Structures
1.
Amino acid sequence: LADPENPAIVTPSWGGFSRAHTIHIDQASATAYVAGRNGTGGVLILRLTQPMAPTVAGMWDVAYVHDMFVRDGRMYAAAINQGKCYILNIANLAVPTVLGVIANYPDAFTHNVWATGDGSHVLTTDERAGAVVRMWDVSDPVHPEQTSFWSSFTTGRAIPHNVHVDGNLAYVSYYTAGVRVLDIAD
């Protein structure tokens, strides 16, 4: 991407998977996290120290992971089909371990997850009509606790898609209802 207007295809390409739903790259550690590979996979973890020849650092295939967020040795894995968000310790990339699970709440169909700047909370979206955006206290990852939820729609039919956090703002996209920006300072 040296010239973003004219990206160059890397050859030979790496054939470790044919498609993925989400790829998160931690530039500081030169690590890629590939979710939903080939439509069924959990998370494949790749070292990119040599981007032309990535190496497998680890894998977590307990559930299909649709989306994930990674920061500070933790991975939050949105397992949409199970309606769960797994909180994983990834200090050892070869052996990710489950610290806790967010589950068993109304409309659980965990499509997306994103952490606040300080990592004490995560926000999740459930890709269902009328679902709300939920905030969870994950300061104790073994016992995550819902702290709040939000929806601006009185009709209850809007479908939340993704939430992304930047500072004290959460950007929530909806399939047919545009974008809402939430102040999450408190």
Note: The mean pLDDT is 92.
2.
Amino acid sequence: MSANNKVREVVVLFKLRLASLVVFSAILGYLMGVPEGAFSWAGIIGLAVAGTLLTGASNALNQVLETREDALMERTAKRPLVRGSLSSTEAVVVALLAAGAATFMLWHQFGPLTGILGLISLFMYVALYTPLKKHSAWAVFVGAFPGAFPPMLGYVAATGQFGLGPGLLFAMQFMWQFPHFWSLAWVLHDDYQRAGYHLLPGKGGRDKASAGLILFYTLFVIPVGMLPWVFGFTGVVSAVVAVLAGLVMLWPAMRLFFTTDMRDARRLMFASFLYLPVVQLAYVLDRL
């Protein structure tokens, strides 16, 4: 395979579309935390590059550990490691180089705390969440921690310290993870079962118990999304946006509880994709 084709396969391995969503969340966290008059394009670019490398490395190592399972699922059967267009050794080397470069950039440009948060996120995703997926639905809870790191990491990158502000951003994205991922797991349940994963919260899979827990956690998304306003980090406009966006998620979650219909799970999944950037952007704009 030519060098150009190898690069294209690495891009697929790194799942850059997903990485872009993670980086966007981190940048909004950075904009939330950056002091007035201290905005820096170098900071934005550095965070974007490091975030892309770190997320890509996490995705690559995840696929190294799950190559056998990926081969069993329709949606992942064409990934580079399954097709053999990249070897596991190549994937590990590229991932470690990307992770090392990302950690160095975060540490050097934004300080040790940011670099350490990046490393913790990588470790939790690869060493805890990925293997736990094969054994327990609690993997979703564990995976929600690194999944909620991006806005917190961005805020810490801007300020150089931890505090209530980044903690609130973490809390919002942490709570959002559950209805978001469970709606996705509902849609992909059959595919996940082929690989031996059981990631819905109820033991029966697509049942009332799972739908009830999805609804319960969706309800909590609304008050947690309002916390930055409650603690004075944003204005009332962002609180209103958080409530409205939360209601957009709540409606399909309620329907899913009563119908257990795949269409309502899809509606919730798409509503959750809309919620996060809209609410986080409202946070940023409300601080201007």
Note: The radius of gyration is 19 Å.
